[in-house]
Design goal:
CATH architecture: Up-down Bundle
Strand content: under 5%
Number of domains: 1
Number of strands: 0
Shape: elongated
Oligomer: single chain
Distance between the termini: 47 Å
Structural class: mainly alpha
CATH superfamily: Chorismate mutase
Radius of gyration: 16 Å
Order of helices and strands: HHH
């Protein structure tokens, strides 16, 4: 196996873990949305979003992580609104 194939195998394994975790995260976001609806809380929580973006700062690829989390947060809020 050449180096690229080996690295792609690593990426495939990481992607599987990421997808599993994202699926769990979306299910949890839906549950949070249900709780917010019951208690009449706003779906949007800028303080929570700021906390997540601040957590990205401790990683090497913080700019990329912030962009990814923008999409994750947007998708999570969309799912919460559907409930």
């Amino acid at each position: 196996m050449d180096k690229i194939s080996t690295l792609r195998t690593t990426i495939d394994a990481l992607d599987k873990q990421i997808m599993t975790l994202l699926d769990q995260r979306m299910a949890t976001a839906i549950s949070i949305g249900e709780a917010k609806h019951k208690t009449q809380l706003n779906i949007e929580d800028k303080n929570r979003e700021a906390t997540i973006f601040k957590a990205c700062e401790s990683y090497t690829h913080k700019k990329a992580l912030k962009e990814i989390y923008k999409t994750i947060i947007h998708t999570s809020k969309s799912l919460q609104r559907e409930e």
